[in-house]
Every structure is written in structure tokens, then in C-alpha cells.
Design goal:
alpha+beta, FAD/NAD(P)-binding domain, 2 domains, seven-stranded mixed sheet, seven-stranded antiparallel sheet
């Protein structure tokens, strides 16, 4: 089954075409911009550009909706950028590598201190491969430069767009685990910061549980009679042309034919990801001082625990789940439990999800006694500093022909203290069951895939931020950004809900200007 669909036959723009908005990147942020602009300015022409292929029908669904394992493996292989179409054996992937991604270092980047920096390249971006956890930030995680009422409205819109709920998936084993976690960690917590079901972007359709990819945001956007939103897959953005403080056009390259075209636009949005968005800006000579700096990623620590006190049978469900590293399978249909962060008192976000016992590695399977087994992961808030950064070369290029990246990253004493606190929390959880790891594992930097801060928001154009609070690049009046790279705060919770919320703010600002230009 060939899932490498070519959508360009129906949607190819002519060279030197004119559109109202070009959006580079079709992940959750780019899809949100397209959806909001299409809804609120239905006559606007929007071109959504994606470097990778479509791997699902319709495009941008979660890859787990592909039921056939061989077809799923093929789809993930098609998402691997410079290794598109190659399977794991051809690439000699190690067991801890997640299918559907490729290492930046394999594409000629240097990743000093950030060894497993990864990306995906497909319609839907990382949103076709994620675990769909959508916690809302609290306390010091909240972005202070956006008015509280505006941010609250943005999060409400993000929850609707991703169709997030906390009560659709659950299991007896999950409820048991939450009761245990509550007894360990709820003292002194408010209700909103207590142990709880994880807000989750998933639902049931035709009796089956499904995970939500960006297709849930896009919905019928390409089928509208007006035909005002077009999608270009397998098309790389090479440069944004800026003149007199305005983005005028985007240079595109068809990856099949090599053909180069230029599309003029009134508004340009770049939502590639936290690594490739600043790369494209640098290639376009858009180089504010903070570009690529303040790289922020959760330190990630994991363990696996068999909850021996649970009196229900372990799950063997393969519904609405994802294949994790080491061949483990986690079914979201059993629900995810969440311990929210509490600042320096509890500087990590912990989530647990049941692992299919049949997928346990042999050594871990031998250690298990037949009770439910849960993967337990902690995301630890990073001590943000400008020297954690991506540098771009003026003379060398990577596999995509864009400026070569060098990532410089490291942990501070504050990070080490927070990592120790997360380790203590995971040890505490392990102590009430049968731990299947000798001790919690601190994964290499880059493992969480939650890369943030590299084109961060700020309330002043003082060199410490790239964008204003509406996601507009300082000094370029019609260039907006989307993605995790906008997030300026130290966070422990998963970033996707925040990213979609910020995209709604940027999209509404573009719509406001489009409406004003049309006399509305």
C-alpha cells in the first residue's frame, strides 16, 4: 500500500503566484493558522506548504489511525526526511530510536550536548506521531507578556481545535494507579494541581478509540467549495524575501522535480518547528539577536513499574496507541494519569500510561508477575539561558540545502537539582510496586522532543525575544511564527496545547489586518 501521496497534482501553484497567506509547516501550529484564517476570512487565499509527504488519508491524521502494521511502518519511514522510505534495518537504528523521526545529526547537523535532537518531515509534522497529552500550564509556566483574559480565550480555542477532554479514556488499572499517586503526592496541592486524568486529544469514532493528529484541526478545510486553502506536500521553503520591513514572497522547491518557484504573499507564517523555523529565518537574513537562543527542552526521566497491589488484569489493548522505544506499545485507550508540576517544590510533570504486557522486552517481561505495568515519565523544567542555542553556518549547508546547524546545550546546577527531585519522585513511585528498571533512567538531551524557546515571545524588542506577544517577528510587519519555539517560560508540561493557543493569537492578528484591508 503506497501512502506517499502526491497532493501537488491538484494544488500546484504556478511560479510567481499571488496568495494572501503562505504558511510553512503543517503541524499543529501551521494547521491552526490555516483553520482560523479560513474560518474567519473565508475569501482569503491560503497556501499551506509542507516539506514532507502526506502519510495518511485524509492528510495530517495521527499515524496510529493506520491499522495495518506494514503500512504504518512504511508511513513512518516516509516521515524520515533525508532517509525517506528507508526502514529501520537499512538505517541500522538502535532500539531506543522512535520510528517516524530522524536524528538531526544524521542530516549533517552537529548536536553538542543535544545528541538525540530529532525531527519528522510529513504532512501533520510531529502532530502525526505525538502521544496527544494536552496539559495546561500553571504557575511560572504561564506566559506573562500576554494578557490573562486573552490567554484564557486562546487556551479555550486550543482545547476546542484539538478536541481535548479528560474523561474519554480510562481503565480500572489507571484509576488504581491514580489513587496510589494521590496518596503519595496530593498533600498540599489544590484541586487543579492534584493527581488527575491527563487532558487528552483523543476520542471515539465508530466504536474505536482514535488519537488526534492535526487533521482534527483542519477537518474539511481542503474540501470547501471556495477552494481557498491549498496544500503543497514535498515542497521545501528555501527563503523568505523581505523588503522595507515586509515579507514579500517565499521561494519554494518541489522536492520531486527540483523546480523552484516564488509565491508572493501579503502575510507569511513560518511554523516549521523549533529547530527548522529559526534555520529558515537565518537563511532569509532575518537574524534578530535572540534567534536560535534560549533553547529549552525538558530533561526526561523514565522508569517502568508493575503495580503489584492492583487486582485487575493487565491490558493487552492495541487500540489508539503508539509504539514507544524498545518495542513497547502504550494504548491511550487506557487513559493517561498526570501529576502536575508545582514550581521548585515539584519541578517536574509526571505522567503514567499502561504498557501492553505482551510487548515488554524479555528481561522486563521475566521480572513482571502478571500485574498491570505502567511506563512512568517525568519532564523536568529547564533552567533557561541564552547560551543553550542553535548556531547556523554562513558557509555550510545540511542535507536540505539550508544553513548547517550546530546545537550547544548543557545542564546547569539548577537543572541538576531539579533532575534529582524528579528522580526522588520516580523512586517514590517505584517503591510501592515492582520496579522493572534498576533505577530511573535519565534520557539523553533531545529525547522529549519538546524543543522550545528558539524564537521566543517577549513584550519588548530588546534583543531577548524574536516575536511580540501576537507572534509577529519584531521589525517585520507581516511575518508571523508558530510552534513550540515561541514559548519563553520554563515549562515541565507538554507544549502542544500552548503552541496551538499561541497560533490562534497570531491567526487572529492576521485576520484583523485582512479584514481591515478589505474594509470590514
Amino acid at each position: 500500500m503506497d501512502l506517499d501521496m502526491d497532493l501537488k497534482s491538484a494544488h500546484r501553484p504556478r511560479a510567481d503566484a499571488d496568495v494572501d497567506v503562505v504558511i510553512v509547516g503543517s503541524g499543529p501550529a501551521g494547521s491552526t493558522y490555516a483553520r482560523m484564517i479560513s474560518d474567519k476570512a473565508p475569501n482569503a487565499t491560503v497556501l499551506l506548504v509542507e516539506a514532507g509527504p502526506a502519510i495518511t488519508t485524509p492528510p495530517a491524521q495521527h499515524s496510529s489511525t493506520i491499522a495495518d502494521r506494514a503500512a504504518l511502518d512504511h508511513a513512518k519511514a516516509m516521515s524520515q526526511g533525508p532517509f525517506r522510505g528507508k526502514d529501520a534495518s537499512e538505517r541500522e537504528l538502535s532500539a531506543d530510536r522512535i520510528a517516524g523521526l530522524f536524528l538531526l545529526s544524521d542530516g549533517n547537523a552537529e548536536t553538542q550536548g543535544f545528541p538525540v535532537a530529532s525531527a519528522s518531515s510529513n504532512v501533520g509534522g510531529m502532530g502525526s506521531h505525538w502521544l496527544c497529552c494536552c496539559p495546561q500550564p500553571g504557575g511560572s509556566e504561564v506566559i506573562g507578556c500576554i494578557p490573562e483574559s486573552r490567554l484564557a480565550r486562546a487556551f479555550a480555542q486550543a482545547n476546542r481545535l484539538l478536541d481535548v477532554a479528560s474523561d474519554r479514556f480510562d481503565s480500572p488499572a489507571g484509576r488504581y494507579v491514580r489513587s496510589v499517586l494521590a496518596s503519595l503526592f496530593n498533600a498540599g496541592r489544590t484541586a487543579e494541581r492534584a493527581v488527575q486524568p491527563m487532558p487528552f486529544a483523543g476520542s471515539h469514532s465508530a466504536g474505536k478509540a482514535i488519537l488526534h493528529g492535526p487533521a482534527v484541526i483542519l477537518r474539511d478545510i481542503f474540501d470547501r467549495p471556495e477552494g481557498c486553502v491549498r496544500l503543497l506536500s514535498k515542497t521545501r521553503a528555501r527563503r523568505i524575501f523581505v523588503e522595507n520591513g515586509s515579507a514579500r514572497a517565499v521561494e519554494l522547491q518541489d522536492l520531486d522535480s527540483g523546480e523552484i518557484s516564488t509565491v508572493r504573499a501579503k502575510w507569511v507564517v513560518v511554523a516549521a518547528d523549533a529547530l527548522r523555523t529559526p534555520q529558515l529565518l537565518f537563511a532569509s537574513d532575518i537574524r534578530p539577536p535572540a534567534l536560535g537562543r534560549h533553547l529549552n527542552e525538558h530533561a526526561m526521566m523514565v522508569t517502568m513499574v508493575e503495580f503489584t497491589g492492583c487486582d485487575v488484569a493487565p491490558s493487552t489493548s492495541r487500540e489508539a496507541g503508539i509504539w514507544l522505544s524498545y518495542g513497547l506499545f502504550a494504548s491511550a485507550a487506557n487513559g493517561v494519569s498526570w501529576i502536575p508540576p508545582l514550581g521548585e517544590d515539584f519541578p517536574c510533570s509526571i505522567q503514567t500510561f499502561e504498557v501492553d504486557g505482551n510487548s515488554l522486552a524479555s528481561a522486563q517481561g521475566t521480572a513482571a508477575t502478571g500485574k498491570p505495568v505502567f511506563a512512568v515519565g517525568a519532564f523536568v523544567a529547564k533552567d533557561i539561558r541564552p547560551e543553550d542555542r542553535i548556531e547556523f553556518s554562513d558557509s555550510e549547508t545540511d542535507w536540505a540545502g539550508l544553513p548547517k546547524m550546530t546545537i550547544r546545550y548543557g545542564f546547569t546546577p539548577v537543572d541538576q537539582k531539579r533532575i534529582a527531585a524528579a528522580r526522588a519522585a520516580l523512586d517514590k513511585i517505584s517503591s510501592i510496586g515492582n520496579p522493572l528498571f534498576p533505577e530511573p533512567r535519565l534520557l539523553p538531551p533531545g529525547s522529549s522532543l519538546h524543543y522550545q524557546g528558539t524564537y521566543r515571545l517577549g513584550d519588548q524588542d530588546d534583543g531577548s525575544s524574536v516575536c511580540d506577544p501576537t507572534c509577529r517577528v519584531w521589525g517585520v510587519k507581516n511575518l508571523f511564527l508558530g510552534g513550540n519555539g515561541l514559548i519563553p517560560t520554563e515549562t515541565a508540561c507538554n507544549p502542544t496545547l500552548t503552541t496551538v493557543a499561541l497560533a490562534t493569537i497570531g491567526a487572529e492578528e492576521i485576520v484583523r489586518h485582512l479584514s481591515s484591508a478589505n474594509g470590514r
